[in-house]
């Protein structure tokens, strides 16, 4: 199991009040838990472009004015790398995992083409992840099993030897909010049977637990993890 501390996902991380707050919070968590502590960093690229330009305008910038898009993303990367240095310099000794974020897809597929991702985002994501590993080595990949092409068995077969999977332990779109406790339990047990094969797995439901989820379903999910999740 894990617990988390959070850093805002964008340039506002420069708030001069953050270092003491984050350092103290991480130290307190480390002292009172034997669980893994996660640092929620962010480092969003595509999403911040969407927030600042609006979705349609940012997609048109990427497609029609690539030089301006590269200049914007270079400036954003510089901000993120500076924030990353400060963030890990502040809490790195008290966290076990750093969590990046960027929403690159829909349920049915990616928001941009693979070619556009490779040109604009892959090298900048790689720069942040490489620096994070230099400062605090780790490697996991999150999983959203309700998306096209994210079949757990296929992902585990193709990539399970090379990386740790994070999440994909319970569908939060349909099963957790709408199923019975028995259905949730069976669903989690089945997924654990897939993810627990060769390689590593960190249990996490697919996405945030929303307010419409029955409490008994949350209990059923965690009870199933305790019963069937041990290696």
Structural class: mainly alpha
Task: Please indicate the count of domains.
Answer: 2
Shape: globular
Highest CATH level, the class of the largest domain: Alpha Beta
Assign the CATH architecture of the largest domain: Alpha-Beta Barrel
The helix count comes to 9
- The Cα radius of gyration reads 19 Å
**In CATH terms, what is the fold-level topology of the largest domain?**
TIM Barrel
- Taking the alpha carbons of the first and last residues, their distance comes to 14 Å
Kindly report the average pLDDT value: 86
Strand segment count = 6
Which oligomeric form is depicted?
single chain
Main beta-sheet strand count, sense and barrel state = 3 strands, parallel
Give the strand line-up of the largest sheet. Answer: 1-2-3
Approximate helicity band: 40-55%
Order of helices and strands: EHEHHHEHEHEHHEH
User: What amount of the residues lies in strands?
Assistant: 5-15%
**Uncertain regions: pLDDT < 50 for 5+ in a row?**
1-16
Describe the protein's architecture and organization:
The protein has 231 residues and is mainly alpha-helical. The chain folds into two domains: 1-138, TIM Barrel, CATH 3.20.20; 139-231, no CATH class. Helix content is 53%, strand content 11%. It is built from nine helices and six strands; from the N terminus they run βαβαααβαβαβααβα. The strands form two sheets. It has a three-stranded parallel sheet with strand order 1-2-3, with helices on one face. Strands 4-5-6 form a three-stranded parallel sheet, with no helix packed on it. Strand 1 (2-6), helix 1 (18-32) and strand 2 (36-42) form a beta-alpha-beta unit. The longest helix is centred in the middle third of the chain and has 26 residues, at 66-91. The relative contact order is 0.11. Mean pLDDT is 86; it is low at 1-16.
């Amino acid at each position: 199991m894990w617990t988390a501390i959070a850093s805002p996902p964008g340039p506002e991380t420069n708030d001069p009040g953050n270092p003491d707050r984050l350092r103290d919070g991480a130290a307190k968590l480390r002292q009172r838990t034997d669980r893994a502590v996660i640092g929620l960093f962010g480092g969003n690229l595509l999403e911040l472009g969407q927030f600042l330009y609006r979705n349609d305008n940012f997609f048109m910038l990427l497609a029609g004015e690539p030089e301006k898009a590269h200049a914007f993303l270079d400036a954003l990367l510089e901000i993120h790398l500076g924030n990353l240095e400060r963030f890990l310099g502040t809490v790195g000794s008290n966290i076990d995992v750093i969590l990046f974020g960027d929403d690159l897809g829909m349920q049915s597929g990616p928001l941009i083409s693979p070619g556009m991702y490779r040109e604009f985002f892959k090298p900048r994501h790689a720069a942040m992840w490489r620096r994070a590993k230099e400062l605090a080595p780790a490697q996991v990949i999150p999983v959203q099993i309700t998306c096209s092409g994210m079949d757990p068995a296929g992902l585990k077969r193709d990539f399970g030897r090379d990386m740790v999977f994070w999440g994909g332990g319970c569908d939060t779109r349909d099963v957790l909010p709408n199923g019975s406790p028995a259905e949730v339990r069976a669903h989690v047990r089945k997924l654990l049977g897939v993810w627990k094969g060769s390689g590593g797995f960190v249990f996490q439901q697919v996405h945030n637990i929303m307010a419409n989820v029955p409490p008994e379903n949350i209990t059923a999910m965690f009870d199933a993890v305790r019963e069937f999740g041990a290696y």
